[in-house]
Write a structure and sequence with these properties.
By secondary structure, the protein is of the alpha+beta class. The protein is built from 16 helices and 14 strands. The chain has a domain of about 180 residues: 2-Layer Sandwich (Beta-Lactamase), CATH 3.30.450.260. Strand 3 and strand 4 form a beta hairpin. Helix 1 packs across helix 2. The longest helix has 26 residues. The protein is globular and about 70 Å long.
Length: about 475
């Protein structure tokens, strides 16, 4: 039975918890009989695979017994799923997905990404968000949902999102269906998600939720631009020129700093300003709703990196122009593409020759659509090399009207190979030293190796043998 025909017992166990909690154990036993399931109370294990067909029969059986529609049953399951996850000890995981509801919504994929690292052959749903450009309040996002199991769990998404907003961020969430398309067993749906604070006192919210709760502020125009006259950053840089880095970084700034690194500093201050503004009350905000931060005391927009330093800090980065022509690339990423260090071979080529966007699925290389994903995690797959390699990372778009250190719209992809163990590194002909020291992957790979060895030792001592461990 393939991974698409099975799913983990979280859904079945949550459904059992919902029915017993709301309607009693006798109702659950009745639902089991209606579904033709011979399981007993407590038989479903969260981390064990169960047939998709069984889950569908349990949902339909529950709808028949409770005299509601299957869609209502699944939405009820979604609302209960938030409580069930919390009871299972994962409340911190939910809270850590974001300090406000918008951030939480953008990070809906993270729990599934963790599971995917443990079960790479399974197919999990995908989520991503677009900003609603017509919204001026900053409290609307377009949520996309991509599932390999049809429309079955679309109502569950509605239940989870509404309940999580209410439970953890004290916001009243409304979801307006925008479209739903079916292609075989694949479903792509989207909702316009809008939220507003419940009318309670700030003290009550603080008591209920230790995390900061606030709607994200609309990203304002950058108020701490790099000064063209006093800054050492020039607006001009040459494409394809050689630097003093041995040819690894092929964009050379007119000054000794890379234009993309200068944009880092500027954009970081912009986001810090927006975050601080979001945490201020209307009375606390300065005139014009623009926070007057003393950037000279702790943040300096003139700090940047030389091309050599940028290469060392982000060896797997790639920068493209608005027409998606490669203008800069990290040496290790070039090595994975060409099995050599010829970074200049990529310059001027269309990025789609090398990479496909895999998350969100089937996403085009479209400038305006990608800009909507700037605050999200994306995954790309290298299709040019002999090896199939996935990368995860984020994007940073730079506009000359905001980032004075660039002369044309550009996008910087900050990527890292999506690898699971040390064997993957060896297969890619990489070393741990190829990852920057600030990258957490180094530690995770070593810890994972230690944990695997300990698990193997326990299994061998229990008498099951190495083959059982490998399976």
């Amino acid at each position: 039975m393939t991974s698409l025909e099975t799913m983990y017992g979280w859904i079945n166990a949550s459904l059992e918890s919902l029915v017993i909690h709301r309607f009693g154990p006798d109702t659950w036993i009745q639902i089991l009989r209606e579904a033709g399931c011979h399981a007993k109370i407590g038989d479903f294990i969260r981390n064990v695979d169960y047939p998709d067909d069984l889950t569908k029969r349990l949902i339909d059986g529950g709808a028949n017994v409770l005299n509601i529609t299957s869609e209502e049953m699944v939405e009820l399951l979604g609302k209960n799923f938030v409580r069930f996850v919390r009871q299972c000890g994962y409340e911190t995981t939910i809270r850590c997905q974001g300090s406000n509801f918008a951030e939480w919504l953008k990070n809906l994929n993270e729990p599934h990404r963790l599971l995917r690292s443990r079960f790479p052959n399974s197919k999990f749903p995908e989520f991503w968000c677009f900003r609603d450009e017509s919204d001026l309040s900053g409290s609307t996002l377009i949520l996309h949902y991509y599932s390999y199991r049809g429309t079955l769990f679309c109502p569950m998404v509605i239940g989870v999102v509404k309940e999580a907003g209410k439970e953890y961020y004290h916001v009243d969430v409304s979801m307006e269906a925008m479209f739903q398309s079916i292609n075989g067993a694949v479903c792509h749906a989207a909702w316009k998600v809008t939220w507003k604070d419940f009318p309670v006192s700030p003290m009550a919210i603080t008591d209920l939720h230790p995390l900061p709760i606030s709607s994200p502020a609309k990203r304002s125009k950058f108020s701490h631009r790099v000064n063209n006259t006093s800054s050492s950053v020039s607006n001009n840089f040459s494409v394809g020129s050689k630097s003093d880095c041995g040819g690894d970084v092929v964009i050379q700034a007119a000054s000794d700093r890379c234009p993309f690194s200068a944009a880092f500093a500027a954009r970081a201050i912009e986001k810090l300003d927006a975050a601080r503004l979001a945490g201020m009350s209307r009375e606390e905000r300065p005139e014009g709703n623009s926070p007057q931060l003393d950037s000279s005391s702790s943040y300096n927009a003139n700090i940047g990196l030389s091309p050599q330093r940028l290469k060392d800090a982000f060896p797997f980065h790639i920068a493209v122009s608005k027409d998606f022509k490669v203008v800069q690339i990290g040496p290790k990423l070039a090595q994975l593409i060409f099995d050599c260090h010829l970074a200049s071979a990529c310059i001027g080529m269309f990025i789609g020759i090398f990479f496909n966007i895999s998350t969100p699925p089937d996403f085009p290389w479209d400038w305006n659509q990608l800009k909507n994903l700037e605050d999200s995690t994306i995954e790309v797959t290298l299709n040019y090399s002999r090896k199939k390699i996935s990368f995860r990372g984020t994007m940073m778009f730079m506009d000359p009207s905001i980032d004075s250190c660039v002369t044309e719209p550009s996008c910087l992809f900050l990527l890292n190979p999506h690898i699971f163990n040390l064997n993957d590194i060896n297969e890619l002909n990489l070393k741990l030293s190829d990852f920057p020291s600030h990258n957490f992957q180094r530690d995770l790979l070593i810890i994972g190796k230690i944990v695997c060895r300990k698990m193997l030792l326990v299994i061998l001592q229990s008498g099951f043998g190495r083959r059982a461990f490998e399976e």
